[in-house]
Write a structure and sequence with these properties.
Elements: E1 2-7, H1 15-25, E2 33-34, H2 48-60, E3 66-73, E4 76-83, E5 100-101, H3 106-120, H4 130-133, H5 147-151, H6 170-178, H7 194-208, H8 212-224, E6 247-248, E7 266-267, H9 274-278, E8 289-290, H10 292-303, E9 307-308, E10 311-312, H11 316-323, H12 346-349, E11 359-363, E12 367-372, E13 377-383, H13 395-408, E14 411-412
Parallel strand pairs: 1-4
Antiparallel strand pairs: 2-14, 3-4, 3-13, 5-8, 6-7, 9-10, 11-12, 12-13
Length: 415
Amino acid sequence: MRLFSFRARLPRRTLFAVACLAVLAAGCAVPGRPLPGARHAALDAARFPEIDAALRQAIGEKKLPGAVFHLERAGDVYERAYGTLHDGPDAAPVTPDTVFDAASLSKVLATAPAILLLAEEGKIDLDARLAQYFPECAGGGKDAITIRHLLTHSSGLPSGLPAKPAWHGDAAAHALACNTAVTDAPGTLLRYSDINYILLGQLVQRVSGMPLDQFARTRIFAPLGMRDTGYLPLRRGVAADTIAPTQKGAQPGTATAHGDLAPGALLQGVVHDPTARRMDGVAGSAGVFTTARDVARYARMVLNGGELDGVRILRPDSVRLLTTAQTPAGLAPRGMGMDIDSPYALRPRGLLYPVGASYGHTGFTGCVLWIDPGSRSFYVLLSNRVYPDDASRVLELYTRLGTLSAQAAGLVHPG
């Protein structure tokens, strides 16, 4: 494996960045094709300075304080750390070892593969109804919801649980989810919903007897060698000063039970997502902390049909369910976990990764995983763009990085 790993320092703009933004302004999204004879070639190092420039520019514009970027293809790796943990005068630099709050990447790193593992073992029927496992969730139009609907965000449930009146704990979250009525008939609408994955995380515990964080650690993270990945990093002994902070307004561990931020210093090592915070940091929708290096191991496993370094995590058919269209007919394609071509896929896919064949996911804190099996390439972006107040918008950065990653992997505009 050829590895490029170092820190970025000096900001500069590139002509490509300007050109890319011009294409974005035109509203175009053109799938790419491999360069002739380049399908198995190494990464194109000529693109690395442009990737650096895109991230330096975003940091210079205070869209995020720091990030780690990882690009890989056929054994070649470009990995680099940028910026600092926060904007204070004593802020430490981000390094490849920096741990980030992965937000909704938790859905594909932990929850979806956990459900698929249990399906492999015959403990979950993916086409069974939710009420078969949770009879208390019957009613409110939910009787027709299947596990497949939850995994593909086609259940018709609202996007999230209410914050008020104040509540706390997994049991309270479950009661709220079970008492929520659908807004549309299951299978007729694609709506990204944290409630879907909160219920799936609780289903893991119901059928396995293990809390989601324990199941993910013992069945996914540890076997894969994802040594820095898991829920509740401070309880696992991860030093707070190695974790990228998310939001100002709370001391580590002092977020209130109802998810609000108490006055104080940084929210660092405590999950940013307020619903997951109300659930004490472990939810099927959010809560995983990780490094770019660990997410890359997960991506390699997926590209390799569910196996890495002689350890099988998922069967090839489970990887297929995770990464290919499983939504009901007529809905934007999503896998049982991965996004394929919903509106959320447009930015991280960039302008060149093939529509319908590549797949991935994002996280609200500023995280992206995008994988293209055709070129055997993927890229990972972990950042804390929600520091200091989650007002920053980085969608254009996602598109630039997705496009540059595809170019480095040998994809070009057709024609």
